[in-house]
Amino acid sequence: MLSTFQSGFRKSRSTVDDTFKILIATDIHLGYLEKDAIRGNDTFVTFDEIMKQAMQNEVDFVLLGGDLFHDNKPSRKTMHCCIEVMRKYCMGDRPIIFEILSDQAVNFSHSKFPWVNYLDTNLNISIPVFSVHGNHDDPTGTDGLCAIDLLSCAGLINHFGRSRSVEKLEISPVLLQKGNTRIALYGIGSVPDERLYRMFINNQVTMLRPREDEDGWFNLFVIHQNRSKHGATNYIPEQFLDDFLDLVVWGHEHECKIAPVRNEQQLFYVTQPGSSVITSLSPGEAVKKHIGLLRVKGKKMNLQKIPLQTIRQFFIQDVTLSEHPDLFRPEQPNVMLKVMAFCQEKVEEMLEEAERQRLGNPLTPEKPLIRLRVDYSGGFEVFNTMRFSQKFVDQVANPKDILHFIRHRESKDNIKECMDFEALLSRPTSEVLQLRVEDLVKEYFQTAEKVCILYMCVEDADQSLVNIPLSPLQTFHRIMRK
Amino acid sequence: MLSTFQSGFRKSRSTVDDTFKILIATDIHLGYLEKDAIRGNDTFVTFDEIMKQAMQNEVDFVLLGGDLFHDNKPSRKTMHCCIEVMRKYCMGDRPIIFEILSDQAVNFSHSKFPWVNYLDTNLNISIPVFSVHGNHDDPTGTDGLCAIDLLSCAGLINHFGRSRSVEKLEISPVLLQKGNTRIALYGIGSVPDERLYRMFINNQVTMLRPREDEDGWFNLFVIHQNRSKHGATNYIPEQFLDDFLDLVVWGHEHECKIAPVRNEQQLFYVTQPGSSVITSLSPGEAVKKHIGLLRVKGKKMNLQKIPLQTIRQFFIQDVTLSEHPDLFRPEQPNVMLKVMAFCQEKVEEMLEEAERQRLGNPLTPEKPLIRLRVDYSGGFEVFNTMRFSQKFVDQVANPKDILHFIRHRESKDNIKECMDFEALLSRPTSEVLQLRVEDLVKEYFQTAEKVCILYMCVEDADQSLVNIPLSPLQTFHRIMRK
């Protein structure tokens, strides 16, 4: 089984450097709100910070999980900023000491220059960047190009994980070697979730593995899809992914859950770096944002969290008016003024907290994002949020939408528990027949998450996966074949 | 005075290479009609041809006169094609053996990387490209960027001749030296003609000259403006340009007049390369298109025309129906059918001629552009051009607009002769006072073109300009100062 090792490990060894250092980031969304007077430069500033971190940490390469750009057709300014930052940090004389063992013409077959940029004798690359595309910057149009293809054509990025087929995905890994460590880097650029779900179900997704010493590779996989359940087939269950993987870098999801979490069925780890910009005023985006410094040596890995310094602060708070009968009741005269004063107090509290936290952190943008969600159910009335916001126009980055009125406070965990497998099987036959295979599978996996008894997990701290159990998908396919 | 020398000159010398070889092209209009099923790739194919010529001729650099892009915000495909061609031909190991003597931080002050690309240690440039911007790809928006700034940021082009001020232009030349030859390269990126006209008139355009050995430089100037007269002040008279110049490369005008023409007042030469794509079905675009191979040694120059092979053929013919009373008259029955047959014959003649000329020229696109301008005045009626064109839909590149009906045939030379200066002076005083200074100056220059007796031109075949006469503009300023 994979075991993690402590940072500082490298210092105890010498001679051959076997440790890959990889900077991991995703969903940088360059150009998001670029016309906003306050927040317009946020994405550019943070991208600069990220690439600077890559340089300062002397990483071997940067691995991005998609959505480098927010718009499918980024503005000239956005493209210019991006090129500027990449040329500034990714070019230079620092030698690159890992090799590519795979056929680059296959890995980068869609490129006009189908080889990794740092091996191009005309470009002096110090930090290669590898990226899949996201749903925001996916290939479109008759030319089948995406925004990062411009960077790829200019020799600034290595766009991988791209498939021309909508019928099947055959993922040929980029094989990297540094000293004795070998990484097989797999990627799938964003595909509509429903389609990819179906492709997995129909056994149309194949991850090719190196013939030589199949188990000697650290298998790293980058995906840019829904990880949380958005409807029946509108996400990719972790169980779909091959269990020979060691680490999955999950893009698209904006909440920073960068500490690797072990999937107990598939026995791989998943890291979800999260976005480096707040694109919605929701609780997930309020989680402190990080990028990762991944070290891989042999089959061991360590992921060091690097907090981002340039992220705009974001405070979100929920209040339920009916929970404060001592302060105001719907039937009182002047209740609205009292509620406004209450809300103002809450916002001011957040602003004070923001100010406190920002002190001594010169890179943090001055004005925070503030969101107060007000549950006004129980007979209260809403008031003019614009007028309310006027008071904070010079203090917050989002003066237009500080307040958000909601009627019935939603449960934070609003993912519906699905029927269990038994309930499904007890339905009348006609109803079952009408269900699509996908739905059956979905329900099966939802059940399977709790039914792990099928799998015998034998671990060895040193040797990594010894006895690889069948994944639910493999089990499913076996059942279907019978 | 400048003297030209024959191609092949270099072979008679040896040791130090003093001859600059410069490929000159302009108005490439990348992306023009890119969505047209037939003509969509024309601009990309020709750009490839141009850059290939630069490589094959082993030029020291490429000089572009603006409008590299047709659209201010080129499509992704267009930008991708452009980057691809530039990376393919402009990067490589061929050494660059000329130096930059000027302050690059001044020449390229607007760039994030304010130095010439071939001196960037991270880029292995074999052919530097210098370009001003045109009116199609000029800087716009709050970012003040233009399309070629993306190329500049990526290290693929050297964008010069740009000014941030709309008040005055101070043009600091890029100073180049190869062996004993020194070139001062001046440029003005496209400015609205009226504004630039006014700036010239108001003495707000300054061309800085190197302090050291002022007369030892070959002064090369690139401009992208109207050269032909579009209204009173909507063009730039050649006389406005400083007379210390040796060669002016005039962009923007699409007709190929690449053979240098001497301006007898200013004593410089003007070359007008013309566009490398036909963007309008007018006679000027039917002139055979070329790029130029400019050789400069000391103060001598030679410009070799290179015909472009990939240009789509364009045939244009004018017919006046009333000139064929033997064939048809307006009052005849079935006259329209006769006219249609006549027009069809004319188009077929052009198609046959196109076919003949294309034979043995495999790079020429298959379908030509055909335009028949039909003067139907004299009582004839127009007919459905779309139906007429149906016959040629598989043979021509512009089936939708082969025919163009005109009523009164315009004079080919429709530039109005303006009043002379004497006529102006004889107007009543009140009327004269209402004229703007620009108008006075315009009329003065129009007169001045014929009144060259003021200027004493002393030439020396070896020594170039010996006695530089006052230009009309200088004369004007002297008069105004008095």
From TrEMBL, chains A, B:
This protein's UniProt keywords: Chromosome, DNA damage, DNA repair, Endonuclease, Exonuclease, Hydrolase, Manganese, Meiosis, Metal-binding, Nuclease, Nucleus
Cellular location(s): Chromosome; Nucleus
Alphabetized Pfam families for the sequence: Metallophos (PF00149), Mre11_DNA_bind (PF04152)
Nucleus found in the keyword field: yes
Predominant location: nucleus
GO molecular function: 3'-5'-DNA exonuclease activity; manganese ion binding; single-stranded DNA endodeoxyribonuclease activity
GO BP annotations listed: double-strand break repair via homologous recombination; double-strand break repair via nonhomologous end joining; meiotic DNA double-strand break formation; mitochondrial double-strand break repair via homologous recombination; mitotic G2 DNA damage checkpoint signaling; mitotic intra-S DNA damage checkpoint signaling; telomere maintenance
SUPFAM superfamilies according to UniProt: Metallo-dependent phosphatases
One GO cellular component term noted in the UniProt record for this chain: Mre11 complex
Domain Mre11 DNA-binding: from-to ranges: 301-455
Cofactor(s) this protein requires: Mn(2+)
Cited InterPro entries: Calcineurin-like_PHP, Metallo-depent_PP-like, Mre11, Mre11_capping_dom, Mre11_DNA-bd, Mre11_N
Gene3D superfamilies, A to Z: 3.60.21.10, Mre11, capping domain
Family, per entry: Belongs to the MRE11/RAD32 family.
UniProt cross-references to NCBIfam families, sorted A to Z: mre11 (TIGR00583)
Protein name: Double-strand break repair protein MRE11
UniProt source species: Sinocyclocheilus rhinocerous
